[in-house]
Design a protein that fits this description.
3-stranded antiparallel beta sheet, binds zinc ion, Helix Hairpins, rod-shaped
Length: 445
């Protein structure tokens, strides 16, 4: 970055050399080299600003990449949360069906227990009477009722079979009961594991939600940082644009200076030639006709002719007719970096010196305002004319000292018709660090 700027500055210098070089301009006037020095200083500032702009751009790209990563993670978390929600729903359904199964098993158990109990009572009764009668009487009644021997044998077998059947049924019931109990235990164990699973899933979901909330917060902060960086970038680009305009103005100033020097050199040559011819003529015809031809009797000092202040001799002239309503410096808590010239009449505003308009626009604070860049003996000055009702020149216009550039007004952050006039020894910057008090430099009311 820096290397390319240096190359650019060198190219620019070579460029001037080529354009204005040649016969006599090798001996460059001090004012021009000083202007070129200013040009280089501005170029340095611009390269600083541009490297900051690059840094900011990289920062923005970095922030955007980080945001993309966080968004990916949020998507992943969203999916995990949806998965765990589904699993919770499934497992909860399983939990409910297991609970229903347990209830059903409990019902079956009740039925079996009831059956066993009834059968037990029956068998106990039968066993009691069997014991009471020595185990014969009741069955004996059955046997005694037999009509024949074969009937008797049949009945005796039947009694044994009944007794065995009773025992078998009881055993079967017991087996059923055992099986049911085993199953119940299994289902209970199942229920416990399902309950633990649901609890685990809920914990997981909670953790995922916490992670997602963190990522959301991170994303919001990255977005804020990116917005800040964008704003910073805008400021820097504005500053760079102003510096670029100033460079153009100085280039213009260099050109004007060189033209003026060429003109002066040509005039000097012509004057020398005329003097030589006059001397020759005087020698030929010895008339004495010397006349002073110093005609530089242009208005020195200015005459205020009502609406427009007269144009002063010297580099500077008064920018508007009126009275000084506010001076330079502290004004209450704020710092007034210019002077205010007020006039109840909408008087013309004129350029305070020869220069180039670097900015002409409507600002929310300055209102209709014009920035003019001047180069005076190699020193760059910038003047600002604010709160005008009308602007008459645009950016890039070359203006002469005393030339009307607008009309006094009350636009922007202004209370009452006046001209807010700033003088900067150097370029205008956001912090106005080059602003100086124009008193003693620029003629004022
Ligand atoms: Zn002011």
């Amino acid at each position: 970055m820096r290397k390319s700027i240096v190359t650019l500055a060198v190219t620019a210098t070579v460029g001037f050399g080529t354009i204005f070089g040649g016969t006599s301009v090798r001996t460059e006037a001090a004012s021009i080299s000083s202007l070129k020095g200013e040009q280089n200083k501005i170029q340095e500032q611009r390269s600083d600003i541009n490297s900051t702009i690059n840094q900011k751009s990289n920062q923005i790209t970095d922030l955007q990449n980080q945001q993309a990563d966080v968004k990916d993670e949020i998507t992943r978390l969203d999916k995990a949360i949806a998965d765990s929600t589904n699993k919770i729903n499934e497992t909860t359904a399983k939990l409910e069906s297991t609970k229903a199964e347990i209830l059903e098993l409990q019902g079956e158990m009740e039925v079996i227990k009831d059956r066993i109990e009834k059968r037990n009572i029956l068998l106990k009764d039968r066993a009691r009477s069997y014991q009471e009668t020595g185990g014969v009487v009741n069955y004996l009644d059955v046997l005694m009722g037999s009509t024949s021997f074969s009937d008797f044998v049949g009945r005796a077998n039947a009694v044994v079979t009944i007794m065995q059947a009773d025992q078998a049924i009881l055993k079967e019931h017991e087996a059923d009961k055992q099986a049911l109990e085993t199953k119940q235990k299994q289902v209970q164990a199942n229920l416990a594991s399902i309950q633990k699973m649901v609890a685990d899933l809920q914990t997981l979901k909670q953790q995922l939600n916490v992670q997602k909330a963190d990522k959301d917060k991170l994303l919001a902060s990255l977005k804020d940082q990116e917005n800040d960086a964008h704003e910073g970038l805008m400021d820097l680009q504005e500053q760079d644009a102003l510096l670029a305009a100033q460079q153009t103005a100085i280039q213009q100033a260099i050109k004007m200076e060189q033209e003026a020097q060429a003109k002066a050199a040509a005039e000097a040559a012509r004057a020398a030639k005329a003097a030589a011819e006059a001397a020759k003529r005087q020698a030929a015809s010895s008339h004495s006709s010397s006349s002073s031809s110093t005609s530089s009797s242009s208005s020195s000092g200015y005459v205020s002719s009502g609406s427009t202040p007269g144009v002063s001799s010297g580099y500077w002239t008064q920018p508007a007719a009126g009275y000084l309503s506010s001076g330079f410096g502290a004004r209450g808590s704020e710092r007034h970096v210019g002077v205010d010239i007020a006039n109840p009449t909408a008087v013309p505003i004129v350029a305070a010196a020869d220069g180039v308009v670097i900015r002409s626009y409507l600002s929310s604070s300055y209102g209709n305002c014009i920035f003019v860049s001047h180069s005076i003996n190699g020193q760059v000055y910038t003047t600002v004319y604010a709160h005008m009702s009308t602007r008459l020149v645009g950016s890039g216009a070359v203006v002469k000292k005393g030339q009307q550039i607008g009309v006094m007004g009350n636009t922007g952050d202004s209370t009452g018709q006046h001209l807010h006039f700033e003088l900067h020894k150097g370029p205008w910057t956001q912090d106005k660090r080059f602003a100086i008090n124009p008193v003693g430099i620029v003629p004022l009311p």
